[in-house]
Amino acid sequence: MSSEKTVDVVLIGGGIMSATLASLITRLQPDWSVQVFERLGDVAQESSNPWNNAGTGHAALCELNYMSESADGTLDPAKAIGINEQFQVSRQFWASLVRDGSLGDPGSFINSTPHMTFVTGEKDVAYLRRRYEVLREQPLFAGIEYSEDSRVINQWAPLLMRRRRAGEPFAATRIPAGTDVDFGSLTHQLFDAVTTAGAVLNTDHEVRSLRKQPDGTWTVGYRNLLGRVPGRVNARFVFVGAGGWALKLLQKARIPEIKGYGVFPISGEFLRTDNPEIVAAHEAKVYSQAKVGAPPMSVPHLDARMVDGQRSLLFGPYAGFSPRFLKKGRLLDIVAQVRPGNLVPMLAVAKDNPGLIRYLLSQLTASRATKFAELQEFMPTARPEDWYRIVAGQRAQVMKKDPERGGVLQFGTEVISSADGTIAGLLGASPGASTAVPIMLDVLRRCFPDRIDGWEDGIRGLIPSYGSTLNNRPRAADETMRATAEVLGISL
Fold first, then answer.
1. Residues 6+ apart with CB under 8 A from 95
2. Which EC class heads this enzyme's classification (predicted)?
């Protein structure tokens, strides 16, 4: 490919983020040329792969870390509502693509799976009860149920209650409208649609350099890994959706906005069972409280999964450590990120998070029996012979400057964009994939302020609630959720 060729958009990374942005651009600006570069042999092989994530359609229905308790004991639902609002945007977008045939059978990527929260101990039971009382008043959480009755919880999720100790305080909430999402299947289908529309997907191509040119374009240097052939292409706009490697590439681009940022990689693993008898007895995603000092992404959960038409159960995650920024990254990733501008924030994070370090060490040194005992706290009847270990994807948590503390560890996602809007990238992890559509709309607003108004009608055609919120409009919330549920074939 000649270095003189200029395309409108280059997307780096073949995950759900690039697939979503490509889908939006090919619909809003169909005359633009789009090229995608993925270093592996297929798309959706890192965090978008269904076995590298729990597949939870994150809507804050069951995740307690989206509604933490303040120092004075009050509960603010704002973050939970915000996450749910974002997921509703993604659902509307997917429903539109199902309607126009860009996505196939919705059952191939999204399925109804009740979302539950299960806690034990008087303190957590009291918290969950108060959380329920707050959320039951919110339109986006309509249908939430609460119980401390073992008979009721046994109907919802029998594996939680069999052989549970008598006299132990416990409680659960349940929302039938939860979902399980196969982001691997979704990503493949989105890329199939955009390549049919004219986008070019280059797999086995690793981007090595990003250089800003005097005319404002970016020269993207890459290597075809199959033939070890280098190449270059110019782009008017670049999006870096390369997971943990996004930091490395944005650093190579030398944009000032990336200064002070670093990432802390956390690996993980799950226990999985495909035993039909066990799988048939649990049709829910059940989240609980994270251990003291554990990061929010390590909240234990017992998840029903549907991947390629097969049902399985996952339990985890168990945290681990790898210096790689991607599951198939490089051992020197964690060292290669260090710059004069991010060294102080990273050291501050290490100093201020001893609990996280202790937690990681405890996970790394935990025996197989100790780890399995965590599953048995959820499922007392679990037997080791029914479960096997799978290695999950890498999560690169954001570390950045903080004026008061020097640096902070941030759990979530963050868009980094240049002042002129010619390049943007995404750092961070959960809720990630479930909120890909609103995150990519944010990229469009930041980077194309002169075009976003002209795209508004097109966006609203795909996402009817665009530009407004649903939770403060009960009727609109109900109508929107019903409409998307009908198209996607999922429960209300």
1. 483, 484, 487, 488
2. oxidoreductase
HSE of 135, CA atoms in CB hemisphere, 13 A: 31
In the chain, the amino acid numbered 487 is V
Query: Which residue segment(s) compose the domain that 114 sits in?
Result: 6-480
Q: CA-CA distance, 343 to 338, in Å (whole number)?
A: 6
**Which of these, 445, 411, 408, 413, lies nearest to 426 by C-alpha position?**
413
Cα–chain center distance at 431: 4
Helix-then-strand count for the chain, H and E: 15, 20
Residue 3 has pLDDT above 60, yes or no: no
This prediction's pTM: 0.95
Strands 34-37 and 200-202: parallel
The pLDDT of 249-268, averaged and rounded, is 93
128-132, 395-399, 416-420: the lowest-pLDDT one: 395-399
Q: Tokens representing 304?
A: 């029903």
Domain of 446, CATH number, reads 3.50.50.60
In a domain, 487, yes or no: no
In a domain, 259, yes or no: yes
> How many domains does the chain divide into?
1
Tens of pLDDT, residues 333-375: 888 899 988 888 888 888 888 877 888 888 888 899 999 999 9
Is 489 a domain residue? no
Q: Give residue 342's Cα distance to chain centre.
A: 25
| Within-domain flag for 485 | no
